[in-house]
């Protein structure tokens, strides 16, 4: 009764399944504002890949280690993060994520001075540990902050802000890292020995600049969150089920029997891998197809990609209010597959524009797969860990770009390597097609 009184005092009532009777707007806005923060970090990786390739003289497979360090941390930390949420609260997990994010940004200072690829990967890994906490907590928390029937809509609204963070990350990278350098590979190709080393170190110092601004925002968000009362949004044990929360083994057994949940996790793996690899190599594709543009000019294509992604989210949200979620996503995925086929086969700048167009169809994918998959978990005692497994599927962002990098190195064609994300999109389209058929079958049964 005491906790209920506290909840009422702040204007919401928590229901037994963990959802709230209404959405606390201020708290929902705070959680939603966390979303663009991980978008900025993710998009800066696309800038770093181009920068590191030239400065450290890497092949395409090696540059993909940036994404491997980034998304590998998601895979390793998602379960520990879910256990921390279970034992503490979503608020505590979010604050933990912000602290790790701050530490990771801080590590860019020694990394830029040491000027070694491995040290930068350590800094990126530390940032990703923080982001794993943030995504594991915020994705589920956003969906729980209000009535259950609006969970998908809430998560899509929060996720709509991610492209704004992505755009900000690219803009910071475009002007603070690339600046007026021009085409870095062209500038450095005739440099050797001490001259090349000195110029490379100077370029690496520029990587510090965007992270200074991000640090200021992170500290501010941490302070705001620390002083704001937040709902628990956790399922309440009934008198019949007063046992302690389920163990990890019980959770694994429960989820292993849920075939739709497993298919959703698989779809998320391929989706994140596809999205990451398209965004990782769009700048490289533009530079390969048009040798007259600078690195800064090429990065502008990523600003277009994130703007289109944002627009795609808005259009999808409107369509999902009128039509079946799985139907909308089946159509979006099929059209995205066609766009990537054009990227892979048309040997001029049209391929780059098709890659940009693909981002429009990316719009609703991640949050919809997440919420749709989480919704298959009927026993809400398993929600936190189930959400962590969906976040762990982000490891696709570590695996698929590495595969595309290898295909590019082996074939000698960055453009041909886009067949890898194309295949991934075919798999995602197939997933939504069969989910839509299942939805239709359920509707028919309900009518009968």
From TrEMBL:
Species this protein is from: Oenococcus oeni (strain ATCC BAA-331 / PSU-1)
Tree of life domain: Bacteria
Any Gene Ontology CC annotation: plasma membrane
Pfam families with a match to the protein in the record: MFS_1 (PF07690)
PROSITE patterns per the UniProt record, alphabetical: MFS
Topology of this chain in the membrane: Multi-pass membrane protein
Cellular compartments annotated: Cell inner membrane
Gene3D superfamilies found in the cross-reference section: MFS general substrate transporter like domains
Protein name, UniProt field: Fucose permease
Secreted found in the keyword field: no
Keywords: Cell membrane, Membrane, Transmembrane, Transmembrane helix, Transport
Chief location category: membrane
Domain Major facilitator superfamily (MFS) profile: 27-439
Membrane-spanning segments: 25-44, 64-85, 92-109, 115-134, 155-178, 211-230, 269-287, 299-316, 328-346, 352-374, 386-407, 413-434
Keyword DNA repair: no
Single GO MF annotation: fucose:proton symporter activity
InterPro entries (alphabetical): Lfuc_symporter_FucP, MFS, MFS_dom, MFS_trans_sf, MFS_TsgA-like
PANTHER family: L-FUCOSE-PROTON SYMPORTER (PTHR43702:SF11)
